[in-house]
Structure of Phosphoribosyl-AMP cyclohydrolase:
Amino acid sequence: MTAANAQIADKLKFNESGLIPAIAQQHDSGEILMMAWMNRDAVIETLDTGRVCYFSRSRGKLWRKGESSGQVQKLIDFRYDCDQDTVLVQVDQLGVACHTGRRNCFYFAARDGVEVVISEPEVSVEDLYGKK
């Protein structure tokens, strides 16, 4: 851990659970890929390694994006908002970002009062995680 990265993490405002929302955006297209949570350790690891790391609330531990699927996010730029309570990670996404096999997690749309699925999976969940 570098002192500079620890100082950046110390500036951020984590919620009562020690988490901060992190939005992942494809750096060259501007596409919003996903939203996840980071804790202080995930922020520091992301800054130190250049590979995006989140905190999995369901597993209760650090989650290195792509560790089980191979769909890695390489950090291009790390930003935070004016209130210092939301993080934007601009990334180079290798493969799909969503655990459903879609390019991004935002595939539901409200259109004329109806929920519409606007993208289909690019890869099967079985292929992503080796499960049936």
User: Anything to note?
Assistant: The longest helix spans residues 40-49.
